[in-house]
Amino acid sequence: MLSTPTIAESRHVTCLGSSTTTILTIGDWSQGEFAICVSQIKGASDWLFAEDSNSACKILAGDQFQPQLILLAQALPGSVQQREIEHLRQHAPLAKIVVVAGSWCEGELRTGVPLTGVLRLYWYEFLTWWQRQLAANAAWSPNLDGPLTPRDFAVDWDCELDAIAAVHSPSLASFETIAATLEHHGINCVWSRETSQIPADANLGLWDGGQLDQKELAQLQTFASTIQQAGGNMIVLLDFPRKEKFTQLRAMGIHTILGKPYIINELLAACGLAIQTTSPIF
């Protein structure tokens, strides 16, 4: 059982590099998919906790704590209101505000009114975004206007990678889309729809998947095992990943899970981390 952090337990967060970051989290981070996010954050940080935005504003009004990063857990559509964002912005004008949305919030951007002045990420997007920021020792600058805009400019990936990737994709067109991106950055891609087609020297596996039913899960397990036995890491792309799927994939040792549609720079960053490291990033 994950314990909820308290104000008394909060400290400055040490990121990779020499800089430090102060973080204020708002909401219930102890349940469901948010607990997975907490496990990622706890590996690199401690933080100051507030039960809701009103409590957060009272903390910020004291002038003793000015965070660089504010994280809000949004479990249900509409549970984070624009007026809350405005109040937080008034008390912490220089902080980056990130709303982490749970599975029940899928489709909210199509049917509701998007929040402004925040970066909005689904919980599974947050995991790779967080690691990407830490790896680049990125500045936590205030948000541009719009829920997705800051994600594009968070960290630009311009490193040359060196790998041979076995790519399982359902169609040639999908494979060519992925290969065109990765090969531009030094990753040689081989379309591997069957395990027997995986190159012997492949050190990276990429599974372009769907909803991950039992049949696909069994195929992925065989594919991933072949890559892992050769010393490589696996990246899995899924349509709207669920907490249950994360649990299954974590047990399989999958390195990175990305939702679709993915952002190119985030896929490149995931490839870079998978090539350079051995432990899963979620």
Question: Which helices and strands occur, and which strands form pairs?
Answer:
Blueprint: E1 13-14, E2 20-21, E3 23-26, H1 32-42, E4 48-50, H2 53-61, E5 69-74, H3 82-91, E6 96-101, H4 108-111, E7 119-122, H5 123-136, H6 149-152, E8 163-168, H7 172-183, E9 187-191, E10 204-208, H8 214-229, E11 233-239, H9 243-251, E12 256-260, H10 264-276
Parallel strand pairs: 3-4, 3-5, 5-6, 6-7, 8-9, 8-10, 10-11, 11-12
Antiparallel strand pairs: 1-2
Kindly state the number of beta strands: 12
Instruction: Determine the mean pLDDT.
Output: 82
Structural shape: elongated
Number of helices: 10
Beta fraction = 15-25%
Specify Rg, calculated over alpha carbons: 19 Å
Biggest β-sheet description: 5 strands, parallel
Unreliable runs: 1-19
The spatial strand order of the largest sheet comes to 4-3-5-6-7
Helix content percent band: 25-40%
Structural class: alpha/beta
Q: What gap, in angstroms, lies between the N and C termini?
A: 17 Å
In N-to-C order, the SSE pattern is EEEHEHEHEHEHHEHEEHEHEH
